[in-house]
């Protein structure tokens, strides 16, 4: 059952319209949140000064990596930013969540990597938003790492495919690359192709297990393959405010990584878990839920940080 905050007194509304004869209820609050999400009143999010290509990586499974990828992308798209999700995970979970065709034989990221089709040819529009596109992953991708080993420039196949010319053709502001839960050749390709890494970390006991290895691999890619790569964003996921452990993990991550960690924390939510089963992001499945609003807030942080970062670098 979705968690709903129930304060003793009605919270102040940020809407200019009020209905004094109708009392506050949790359902009314959720409906108002959904309306604000589906019809943004505060305008669009700021576009980045230059296109941002972000790899979403964590070799530990079950941390909300794919969930965060598709929901952040959807939140940016809803607020006016053209966004592309590249599903680089053979499981194809991002493709499922965005309800794009990823049956065997469909033009996919596999054909892009081996040079049979271009990224623009494989990109599919989604029903989530006219601004949201996805390059799907099919079962053919499962054997791609073995095939890539013998190919020339095996670490930079994706970088060659995600060229500025191709992305200009699609016209996107953001690219999110969803990696498999491993540190193999596909993940290396994603890091070589991107300028930024977004790391989702769950607020649980084993949250930091293996993180050191991930950071070491990122450093190796920086030194030898992509000097522009940096860890720009850390997102805390699956936060359960009922436990002290969640607060301890949150504080430890913030103390260690500082401002790299987004202020927004994604709560543990049944709605977020249910949405992919319906081929939807949580923003489409239940736009008034806490999970949906948290991803919107996180996306706003990412967009605002990007605008400030580019503004600072241009001066």
From TrEMBL:
Every AAA domain range: 52-230
Signal sequence, renumbered to the chain: none
Gene3D superfamilies: P-loop containing nucleotide triphosphate hydrolases
Spans annotated as Disordered: 1-24
Family the entry assigns: Belongs to the ParA family.
Function per UniProt: May play a role in septum formation.
Protein name: ParA family protein
Organismal lineage: Bacteria, Bacillati, Actinomycetota, Actinomycetes, Pseudonocardiales
């Amino acid at each position: 059952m979705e968690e709903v905050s129930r304060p003793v007194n009605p919270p102040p509304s940020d809407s200019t319209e009020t209905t004094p004869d109708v009392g506050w209820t949790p359902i009314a609050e959720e409906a108002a949140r959904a309306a604000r999400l589906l019809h943004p009143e505060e305008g669009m999010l700021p576009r980045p000064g230059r296109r941002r290509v972000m790899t979403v990586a964590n070799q530990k499974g079950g941390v909300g990596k794919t969930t965060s990828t598709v929901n952040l992308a959807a939140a940016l798209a809803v607020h006016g930013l053209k966004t592309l999700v590249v599903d680089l995970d053979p499981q194809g979970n991002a493709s499922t969540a965005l309800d794009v065709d990823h049956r065997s034989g469909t033009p996919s990221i596999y054909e892009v990597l081996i040079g049979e089709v271009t990224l623009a040819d494989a990109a599919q529009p989604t029903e989530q938003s006219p601004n949201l596109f996805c390059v799907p992953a099919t079962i053919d991708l499962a054997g791609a790492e073995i095939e890539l080993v013998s190919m020339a420039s095996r670490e930079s196949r994706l970088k060659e495919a995600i060229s500025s010319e191709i992305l200009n053709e699609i016209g996107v502001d953001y690219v999110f690359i969803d990696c498999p839960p491993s540190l193999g050749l596909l993940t290396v390709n994603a890091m070589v192709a991107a300028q930024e890494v977004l790391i989702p970390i769950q607020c649980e006991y084993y949250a930091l297990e293996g993180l050191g290895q991930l950071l070491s691999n990122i450093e190796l890619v920086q030194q030898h393959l992509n000097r522009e790569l940096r860890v720009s964003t850390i997102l805390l996921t699956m936060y359960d405010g009922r436990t002290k452990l969640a607060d301890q993990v949150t504080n430890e991550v913030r103390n260690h990584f500082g401002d790299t960690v987004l202020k927004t924390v994604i709560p543990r939510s049944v709605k977020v878990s249910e949405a992919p089963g319906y081929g939807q992001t949580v923003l489409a499945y239940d736009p008034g839920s806490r999970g949906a609003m948290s991803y919107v807030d996180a996306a706003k942080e990412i967009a605002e940080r990007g605008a400030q970062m580019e503004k600072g670098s241009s001066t």
